[in-house]
Amino acid sequence: MNTNISQMDSNEFPLKDECYKVIGCAMEVPTELGCGFLEAVSQETLSVEFVEKSLPYTKEQHLDVTYKDRLLNKKYIADFICYYKLITEVKAMKGLLPEHTAQVLNYLKATSLKVGLLLNFGTTKLQYKRIIL
Questions:
Q1: Closest by alpha carbon to 77, among 59, 99, 55?
Q2: What is each CA distance from 34 to 26, 70, 127, in whole angstroms?
Q3: Phi and psi (nearest 5°) for 122?
Q4: Full set of structural domains in the chain with CATH
Q5: CA 75 – CA 47 distance, rounded (Å)
Q6: Does residue 65 or residue 92 have the better pLDDT?
Q7: In b/e form, how buried is each residue of 84-99, taking b as 16+ CB within 10 angstroms?
């Protein structure tokens, strides 16, 4: 029975452990640094946390975009791709907006990846949203 629960959990909540670890790193940033910094500062401090926790990531990954089966010259730039399969987008806004979710969904579609995290460091408490395609 544990196998069925585990399988259901991984199907219903893909990359659950990876998301948990990335969010844990993100929670450390405002705890250590405080709130209200620009997106670039939040992004850089999150990189430090990823390194300290030995979390595999690439920063500012250029993503191909296709239109009608044609590769476009313009690229999306994702803030991070963690574990080679989890898009992580950083914001420093007063709150998350539907446009931010749409941005992550577009990144997922462009890469054929299935899970993204949206992290907002612009409020008094870290906001995060897990997005599944």
A1: 59
A2: 12, 44, 14
A3: -85, 0
A4: 2-132 (3.90.320.10)
A5: 22
A6: 92
A7: eebbbbbbbeeebeee
Alpha helices, H only, 56-121: 98-111
Could you give the CA distance from residue 17 to residue 73 in angstroms, rounded to a whole number?
35
| Residue 65, phi then psi, degrees to nearest 5 | -125, 130
Quick: pLDDT tens for 81-115. 999 999 999 999 999 999 999 999 988 988 889 99
Tokens of 47: 């990189």
pTM for the whole structure: 0.86
Residues 6 or more apart from 87 whose CB is under 8 A from it?
Answer: 78, 80, 81, 104, 107, 108, 111, 113, 115, 116, 117
Nearest Cα to Cα of residue 91 among 49, 21, 131, 38: 38
CA 118 to chain centre: 5
